[in-house]
Every structure is written in C-alpha cells, then in structure tokens.
Amino acid sequence: MEIVILDAYSANPGDLSWSELQALGHVTIYDRTQPEAVVERAALAEIVLTNKVVIGRPQMELLPRLRYIGVLATGYNVVDTQAAHERGITVTNVPAYSTESVAQMVFAHLLTVTNRTEHYARQNRDGRWTASADFCYWDTPLTELSGKTFGIVGLGNIGSRVAQIALAFGMQVKALTSKRADQLPAGIEKAALSELLAASDVLSLHCPLTADTRHLINAGALRMMKPQAILINTGRGPLVCDADVAAALSSGHLAAYCADVLSDEPPLADNPLLKESNAYLTPHIAWATREARIRLLSIATDNVRAFLQQRQQNVV
Asked: Active site includes 26?
C-alpha cells in the first residue's frame, strides 16, 4: 500500500513517530508540498494524508490510483469532498483531538490580558521590582474574572469545554447555540447574538466558518460590545473582519483581541492587527501541544487502519 504524507512537518516536526502508520504500508513523507507538486508526489499513492495542502477535483482527476484522503485535522475544507465522493474516494478527518488544548489556549490568552504575567516577568528580568519603593507594584489594570459574563459563540466540543472552565472561574456563561435551552448544561444560558454582544465581558468564538458566520464580528457587531470587552478567536480567522477589529482596538472601542487564527496564515505583512498593542496573536498553535499531536497521529493512523479493514471511521 503506497501512502504519501504531503505536509507532515506541522503535525510532526520530528518529535513524534510515524512507525504505526509505516506498519500499514510504504510511507513517503514530505515536510511541505507546494500546490504544483501535489500530483507528482501523489501519483503512485493509494492513500494520501494532508493537513493544509489542498486536494481538489483537478488533482483527483490526475490521480487515478487514489482511494483514500486522510485529513490531519478536524476541518476538512482543504478537500473537495463532493469530487471525492463522485470518484469513490474515502475522506476522513480527526475530530475532537485538540479540545483540551484549544480550551487551554483560550484561557492562556484571557489570563494574559487580565493578569499580564509575561509583562511583569519581562520587567522584573530588567530590574523593575528590585528598584521598587514598595513590596509590590503594578502598572496595568488587573482584572478578576469571577462574576464577569463569558459569552460563547458555538457550543460544540471546544465551546462546551470552554464553558465548563469559565464556570469554574465563577463566571456567568451565555451561549449562542443551535441547542435548545433545556438541552444546555447547568449554568449555561442560551442567548441571541445581539444579547451576547451586549452582555459579554469576554466573547469567545467557537463556531464553524460558513457563509453566515464569515465576518460575524464586524464593525456593526463591535459597536454593540462593551468597550472594555475582550474578544477571543481560536476558531477560524475569517469569523472576524481583521480591519474592523483593529480599528476598534485603535479607537478604544474594544479592550483586547486575543487570536490564535487570522484570515490569512501566515498573515500578510500589512495586516493591521499586527501593529495593535492590544492584539494578542499566537501563530495557530492552540492545537499543537505534544499531547494533542500524539492523539492526532494515533487517530489518523486508526482511520487508515479502519479503511484497510473496510470499516468506516471518521468518514466525512
């Protein structure tokens, strides 16, 4: 069985093993693959694994041996699933492997804003505390989360875990969700978007990117939010309009924007968020803890094994 991994580096830069997958066939590993090289590299493959490399109808038409595409992620928009189904190609993804890690990143970002530990650690490496006239000092606002309202857009696996953690902090949790109010766990209140925008001290985005949710947070939505609110996006970059969020930060109509995703990745050099001091940006790493990546590789391998055994597992 010929197996090709088109962009292995992001999931496994060398600290994990592909040995379980290699036991299932002859595996060729590429760290990265440019679009024009996809067909050449996958020409003999019956199984292709991809993270962010696009496999669309044009590529599939030139890959007659291809029987299976495994996406090394939860989102599978990089694959033309309609074209795959028409050609009898099985497509799988890896759901829920990063739930704990992404939820953790939400609060890493939030606590960065409310407690500023990195700011003070950096100052004190430079001697600021040593020179203090008092036993303590602070030069930023410090905020307690208990009693604040935490709004969540999307109550899937990650949104639900984030809600649990927010409740543990003593926060009031409201959620925009398709679930009925009587289906929600104790402590979570169902809310419409307008209510969520107006009430939230912290607003965290966890919904899929669709035509309806693209730029869900735009200038109009930002005007409805509290100027002291913190906006968090660990979902998909285009859920927000980058330029509108940057303008709100610059004008003081939004206290902070915490994001692990941007509309373009890597970001364009002229993205206005890169220059905003209250934009806290991490390079799409919420999913990338060692523990989450171990689960990713394990489930992806299990998906391939199931396919070879003619069983369906995580088929999309």
From this structure: no
Handedness of CA 235, 118, 269, 220 (dihedral sign): positive
Give buried/exposed letters for 8-44 (b at 16+ CB in 10 A, else e).
bebbbeeeeebeebeeebebebbeebeeeebeebbee
- Catalytic residue from among 118, 265, 291, 311: 265
Task: Report d(CA 132, CA 121) in Å as an integer.
Answer: 14
pLDDT tens, residue by residue, 163-178: 999 999 999 999 999 9
Q: Which of 116, 206, 236, 295 is catalytic?
A: 236
| pLDDT tens-digit series, residues 108-144 | 999 999 999 999 999 999 999 999 999 999 999 999 9
Beta bridge pairs of residue 90: 68
236 is catalytic: yes
The residues with which 2 forms a beta bridge, in sequence order, are 26
119 labelled catalytic: no
Contact 151, 174 (CB under 8 A): yes
